Amino acid sequence: MRLVKKQHWFKGRLYIVENVEAEVCTECGERYFHATVLDAIDRMIAADHRVKEVLSVEVLTA
Ligand SMILES: [Zn+2]
Fold it and tell me: What is the predicted pLDDT for the residue at 46?
């Protein structure tokens, strides 16, 4: 298990959440999140929560 920084969509808004538990594939680096972890993030966002920083994000098309 590692702690990673995760992009997380909730109700049409994008959040960046630090220190999220993930399984990271040693072959390709892909990250896997348990459903319980994802549910916990949803609950944290829905409840009162501390905002560390607010970013504006550029969206590009490749
Ligand atoms: Zn892999």
Answer: 98
